[in-house]
Amino acid sequence: MRSLFSLNKYRDQNTALRIYGWVGDDKFGMFMFPTKDGLIRVIASNGDGWDHVSVSLEERIPTWEEMEYIKHLFFEADETAMQLHVPVEDHISYHPNCLHMWRPHKPVTIPRPPAYMVGPKAKVDDPV
Asked: Counting CB atoms within 10 angstroms of each CB, which of 6, 9, 47, 67 has the fewest?
């Protein structure tokens, strides 16, 4: 995860101070990113062996494009971050419009399926 100081211009100091009693540091913070549809709220943390980014909007769930935008702001280009779909009995939800990204600190490679199972690397033109 990038140092959160690099995102200070987006840091939500008022809400963080009110809720947590401090505005954070290079490993923790609350951030607000303006979009055409409103504000994306992000709570980011780096501890207990994990990088974690919580992404939400007031009225709807973040789109894939918005999650990618946030991923590129908070994680290095060579880092893989993941969303997890855990068993129903393990669900914890405090906000109905919130998605999460995780990255373990341990030097492990997050397993991914072979690229061919996802799709072709080059864009295939639709036949006319």
From this structure: 9
Residue 62 lies in a domain: yes
Q: How many separate domains does the chain show?
A: 1
Question: In this predicted model, what pLDDT tens digit does every residue of 6-57 receive, in sequence order?
Answer: 999 999 988 888 888 889 999 999 999 998 888 999 999 999 999 999 999 9
The answer, as to whether pTM is greater than 0.90, is no
Residue 99: inside a domain: yes
